[in-house]
From TrEMBL:
Domain of life of the organism encoding this protein: Bacteria
Annotated keywords: Oxidoreductase
Gene3D superfamilies, A to Z: FAD/NAD(P)-binding domain (3.50.50.60)
Protein name: MSMEG_0569 family flavin-dependent oxidoreductase
Spans traversing the lipid bilayer: none
Pfam families linked to this entry: Pyr_redox_3 (PF13738)
């Protein structure tokens, strides 16, 4: 080891809620560590959310370590400024040993053990590394975007701020997952003409039988279910989030209702032929799929209420308020007055800088509850790392505490091995 190279027991990569949760537990255990953040703490929360963004889960689920929600509206939904205020308070609470503005360029193993972490500010070494940089790195924009007319402004959902920031005219929103549905609603409520290209995203009710669906699911133990017990197993990590909103106190998002109000819905966007956008004729199927998930979740709540003998308001089944008369397969964007496109089709992970053999064919790390096959390398903050809440404010603390225990045990074992080696020599 080069004596001039800074060394730490643990290096945490990423200064968001996951990285700081890890720091909190390592501090409680008295374990030396350093957090490396390429920009600033909680950067993505300040820069990748639109103006009317709010939580889609109730405030009581904000349970970062040592810093649960303490406001006066536990069943409400914090808006963007309140979320940032909460996270800034958490950052002050943790007071992590952090280097901001340091970009990690490569993580590799060292022949003598541990890891080499090469950064924009030089090299560090560590016995163990926790990758807490999330899984939403590269915005997805299809190659067809290159062929669209230059007169159409194109942005990704992470760049969207408000309707006023887009040129006057109609807007095409591509993708009906959580971000796409909420951005389409934001534009629709502002009086903009919206064309929405749907996918097979599921939806759920906001409130059902007297309380928030999240409250019911918590009572039912859904949020405690580990990934290996989920019917889809690890496949659930690829699922699109259910669309619903906490806006204005919380409500359903019903795309059929938007259609009644003038929003034009299409199936999946498949191509642009130089003049016309081409869509799959699967709008009806997409809407029916979303509604079937909606009704299925409510039916599971009905069964729970009946089994527990709970006194609750009567249940119901969603009945579609609108049906597409026909599927539209083509649309001339210029003739339709479309001046903007917002791509809401997600992100891909980019762990290319982690030069270690732990990834599958899609670039996703193989792990069990964040523990990889590479000794001393961990991941934290990924969707369904262990449970539904792993990538959220509600579950990341439990995952961080678990990994902190693994790290402490590993360091203790290493110390014991070193002591035994010294005694054997003596």
């Amino acid at each position: 080891m080069n004596p001039s190279t800074p060394h730490h027991n643990v290096i945490i990569i990423g200064g968001g809620q996951a990285g700081l949760s890890m720091s909190w537990y390592l501090q409680q255990a008295g374990i030396d560590h350093l957090v490396l953040e390429k920009k600033s703490l909680m950067h993505s929360w300040r820069t990748q959310r639109w103006d009317t963004f709010c939580l889609v889960t109730p405030n009581w689920q904000c349970a970062l370590p040592g810093y649960p929600y303490q406001g006066d509206d536990p069943h409400g939904f914090m808006v963007k400024d309140q979320i940032i205020e909460y996270l800034d308070g958490f950052a002050r609470h943790v007071n992590a040993p952090v280097r901001e503005g340091v970009s990690v360029q490569r993580v590799s193993s060292r022949a003598e053990g541990g890891y080499r972490v090469q950064t924009s500010s030089g090299e560090f070494t560590a016995d163990q590394v926790v990758v807490a940089s999330g899984g939403y790195h590269q915005p997805i924009v299809p190659r067809m975007a290159e062929r669209l007319p230059e007169s159409i402004t194109q942005i990704h959902s992470e760049q969207y701020r408000n309707p006023q920031s887009l040129p006057a005219g109609a807007v095409l929103v591509v993708g009906s997952g959580q971000s796409g549905a909420q951005i389409a609603e934001d534009l629709h409520l502002a009086g903009r003409k919206v064309y929405l290209s749907t996918g097979d995203a599921p939806r759920c009710a906001r409130f059902y039988r007297g309380k928030d669906v999240v409250d019911w699911l918590a009572d039912m133990g859904y949020y405690e279910m580990p990934v290996e017990q989920h019917p889809l197993k690890e496949g659930v990590r690829d699922n699109t989030n259910h669309y619903v909103t906490g806006r204005d106190g919380g409500r359903d998002i019903d795309l059929r209702k938007f259609a009644l109000e003038g929003m034009e819905l299409f199936g999946r966007l498949e191509d642009f032929d130089g003049t016309q956008l081409r869509f799959a004729e699967n709008l009806a199927a997409n809407l029916e799929h979303g509604d079937s998930i909606y009704n299925g979740i409510n039916a599971s709540i009905d069964k729970y209420i009946a089994k527990q003998g709970i006194d609750a308001p009567a249940g119901s089944v969603y009945v579609p308020v609108w049906q597409p008369a026909a599927e539209r397969a083509v649309l001339d964007p210029v003739a339709a007055g479309i001046t903007s496109i917002v791509w809401c089709i997600g992100f891909t992970p980019d762990f290319s800088w982690v030069d270690l053999p732990v990834f599958n064919g899609r670039g996703y790390p193989g792990h069990v509850r964040g523990v990889t096959r590479q000794p001393g390398l961990y991941f934290l903050g990924l969707p369904w790392l262990h449970t539904w809440g792993s990538g959220r404010f509600s579950g990341v603390a439990r995952d961080a505490q678990f990994l902190a225990g693994k790290i402490a045990a590993s360091l203790l074992e290493a110390e014991k091995t070193d002591s035994d080696a010294v005694l054997s020599v003596a």
